[in-house]
Amino acid sequence: MIAKFEKELEEERENSLNVQKTLTRVTSEKNSALVRNAEVSQQIELIKQDMRRQERETNELMNKLTQLEEENAKLKQGVSLQQKLMNNINELEEQISEKNKTIKMLQLRLADMKKTLQQELRTPGNPSYHSDLLENNTAAILTPTQISTRTLPNIVKRDDEDVNFKYLKHVVLKFLTSREYEAQHLIKAISTLLKFTSEEEKLIQDTLEWRKSWFGSKPKYPGNTKSKNVTS
């Protein structure tokens, strides 16, 4: 009987080690998924900005085309001038065609990026997927022999904190190395991770705007409006 219990105990120890290995692997995959999701979301936002810019330029070209057509209607008697206006119209139409092609390409890229993000959320790298996997494995392997699981929540907590720190580090690095208009889209993520107040989040936004502007005074920290300025 003792030998049998010792054998069962050894098997349970091996199962416990397997759970620890699974926990480490799942945590690593969770961290990678968070980083990939952040990068994909940022790329989607940049594509949206580019699309809006292309649409504005297209509208401007359409307005110019309308003006040229109106002028052409008034100056039909001048043959040479009319020919010049027609050439300009043709050039503008070609530009509009190119802009429309660019917008379509950006729309396809945006659809691909959204599809990629949705696939990321459905893969084993998704945090909710890992959470279910950990709960099922822990209940199935550790419960039969009543091995103490008091240390497991602490391990999970430490791993979650490590993942959050790595994700925060990744977002901060992106924020510090991005251009101003790219950094604007990371403010919300940083404010959430660092639990900024609405005033502190607005302070960061105002500071970025101040750095891009030639005029205006430097924003001040809300806690001390007399002397405590945000460092540039």
UniProtKB/TrEMBL annotation:
Topological category with respect to the lipid bilayer: Peripheral membrane protein
Alphabetical keyword list: ADP-ribosylation, Coiled coil, Cytoplasmic vesicle, Golgi apparatus, Membrane, Phosphoprotein
Location within or outside the cell: Cytoplasmic vesicle, Secretory vesicle, Acrosome; Golgi apparatus membrane; Golgi apparatus, trans-Golgi network membrane
Coiled coil (residue ranges): 2-123
Pfam families: GRIP (PF01465)
Domain GRIP per the UniProt entry, residue ranges: 158-207
Cellular component annotations (GO), alphabetically ordered: acrosomal vesicle; Golgi membrane; trans-Golgi network
Keyword Lipid biosynthesis: no
InterPro entries, per the entry: Golgi-autophagy_related (IPR051952), GRIP_dom (IPR000237)
Purpose: Involved in vesicular trafficking at the Golgi apparatus level. Involved in endosome-to-Golgi trafficking. Mechanistically, captures transport vesicles arriving from endosomes via the protein TBC1D23. Recognized vesicles are then tethered to the trans-Golgi before subsequent SNARE engagement and vesicle fusion. Selectively regulates E-cadherin transport from the trans-Golgi network in tubulovesicular carriers.
Protein name: Golgin subfamily A member 1
